[in-house]
Amino acid sequence: MNENKQTNKFQIKDLPSLIVKTSKAWFNDDPFRLGAIIAYYAVISLPGLLVIIINSVGAIWGYEIVQGQLTNEFSTALGSDAAKAIETIIAETQQAEKGILSTIFGIGTIIFGATGVFYQLKLSLNDIWKIEPDPDAKIWKVVLDRILSFAFLLVIGFLLLVSFIITAAINALNDYIDNVLPDILVYVTYALDFALSIGIISVLFALMFKYLPDAKIKWKTVWIGAIITSLLFALGKSLLGLYFGQVDPGSTYGAAGIVVLVLLWVSYSSMILFFGAEFTYVYSERYKSGIEPTEIAEAK
Known about the structure:
By secondary structure, the protein is mostly helical. The chain has ten helices and four strands. The strands form two sheets. Strands 1-4 form a two-stranded antiparallel ribbon. The protein starts with a helix and ends with a strand.
């Protein structure tokens, strides 16, 4: 009887038991291994990811502005030295002049490499949600997955563009507030920046949970999982930034330090994402909202 009551509607008092069950499921699914896999592919995908995002968003917002914004984000997350190294990678990737044939192969390589991290994310989410591809699905399924992964790259580019536009509007509002009510400017800026970050990241995670895995999931469950994940991600981002700023774990690796920092950051961030995915799965099981495989997949 109590179980039936639990399956009807989420209540705040259910949150501790959901967190405990999520933690157990998360640990059992070996998030350290999954995070290491994503980190490895992220390092390989990094040049392609950056080139595609800068070119897609920069065509509208301006290449130098977008590159500067991304450099600031990397500086906040990984430190100024890592940001400069990544800026060099971007410059060297884009400035080389090539022939038509080599350009075509180069574009193909960039797209294939950039989509690799999302393809691995898809596989990891399938594992967490107890789903596996239909064994009868052939090469077209892999091609379809790569196309979907590329679509997510464009989505990220669009969300970055929206983020830049909103940030510009917030800066304009800050200038006005500074003239009228300068004492509360710090608090307003912090609140708006936090709300912007949570909103953008929540949309990204919602789209990821809804469309990336081979699963059917209701939007209600998607949004709950996405918001929980975005809050955890924002907290984790702050803690990781503090950790990297204080400890600088890449400093002992010399020239390879940038690679180590990216590996660590992506690995830790992926584990936070996987915790959110586990919470989404546990939530769907508790309240019978259900996560089912699509027509081209099956339950484990």
